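Hi support team,

I submitted a single chain yesterday and got back a structure, but I'm not sure I'm reading the token output correctly. Could someone confirm the output below corresponds to the sequence I sent? I've pasted both exactly as they appear in my results page.

Thanks,
R.
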Amino acid sequence: MISKSIIFCIGIIICLIILCLVLIQRYSDLSESYDELESERRSSGNKDKRSKFDLLVAGLAAIQKTGAGSAAETAQRENFYQTIVDCACSLIDASQGSLMLIDYEREELAIVAARNITSQEVLNTRIKPGEGIAGRAYQDGEVIFVAEPGRDVNYTRYRGTEEENNPLISMPLKVKDKPFGVLNLHLPSQETSFTEYELKFLEIFTNAASSMLENINLYEKVESYYHETVNTLVRVISANDRRKGKVAEISGKKAKRLAQELDLDEETQKNIEYAALLCNIGRLGVDSEILHKKGKLTASEYSDLKQHIYMSYQILAPIRYFVPVAQMVLYHQEWFNGAGYPEKLRGDSIPLGARIISIINAWEAMVTDQPYRPALSFEQAKAELEKGSGTQFDPEIVPVFLKLEKAGWPVRF
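Hi R., thanks for writing in. Yes, this is the structure output for that exact sequence:
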């Protein structure tokens, strides 16, 4: 007979075994739950990382697309600046952002694009290198992150809204370690730091934006050089014949304004303006007696005069930047009906810029004194231009030109 004490001990042991089994199962359940949570967290992190990567790729594509043509047109350049800010904000879920570029003449950083910053703040914010957080990031060429800008004594340039107290990162834009701007981004208030991949992606994005911005700056420097080349050539024309120089300047302004009225893009407007300024540069190689002859030119003299378009072309064509300008200059004596020279082109086969210059040149020749006749009145010149519409001149451009001439060439806003 088993004693009660033995039975009691066995019962205790069985209870302990059951308790152990329960605890083991509970531990197993907790372990599985933790593994599931950890797996979910990692999965969520990977999804977020992939999402950020997709945003990075989209951002790089966007700045490449908008930056490609932004050097030529002011509106596109402003759109490119804004694209940089918008893409950077999206990349790290920033509530606010701004792009600042250095104004070398004033030695100040100025905002050229912003998100969720008032226009007044954009216009009024000017920061010296070394001043404030953005100025320090620019001067030192290093990324600066401030968790509480509102409490930072260096943060003096953004004021007024609650969001401007959110965590701020200022990233210098550099080419060959030389800074030329700063990208400022505010995190949402609940965020206090960046993930490692967010910083890496942001670094990749800002490097790409920096390269594109530098390319635009280089283009503008080259463009400025060629603009000065044009001015130099115009001064050469003026030195040889002051009246022709004055006519060239007037023709250039009218050509650009007419191109605007025809809704041509800014680069085409500029090329047409240059072509109008320089279309007669080749006359420097024509005998002055022919240019100033009061009577009718002989066939031989007229043949020599016509050579000026080839001379103009030969001066401009070797300069790659002036290739489209040279084409307009070469064909500005063509007639719409094919009766002109040098190749008897007709209609739309004549470059549009050449058709514009043809009208302006003819008009300026009619309304100014010539060695062989006095200037025509407005009505006389208008009648001659309308008479040549469809034969010598493009019939669609003539009425647009006359409208602007009658209105006094108002500035287009």
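A quick pointer for reading it: The longest strand covers residues 178-186. Let us know if anything else looks off.

Best,
Support desk
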